[in-house]
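pasting YjiS-like domain-containing protein for the record, 67 residues
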Amino acid sequence: MALVSDIRTTDSGFSNFLASIREALARRKVYRQTLAELRSLSNRELNDLGMHRSMLTRIALEAAYGK
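structre below
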């Protein structure tokens, strides 16, 4: 009798690990881009949006990772 092994089932842990790494990198990219764009705004533009410069990091974190 031959033993058959399905590599998809043994590889799922590694695939999940890679997927979580990709997701983390994508979220980090959103965070960095959001923060860079917000930092490029002038104080007047931020004020028009109802934001203060001290809020930028928190806003970028919420954009990338949620509340």
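The radius of gyration is 21 Å.
Residues 43 and 53 are 7 Å apart (CA to CA).
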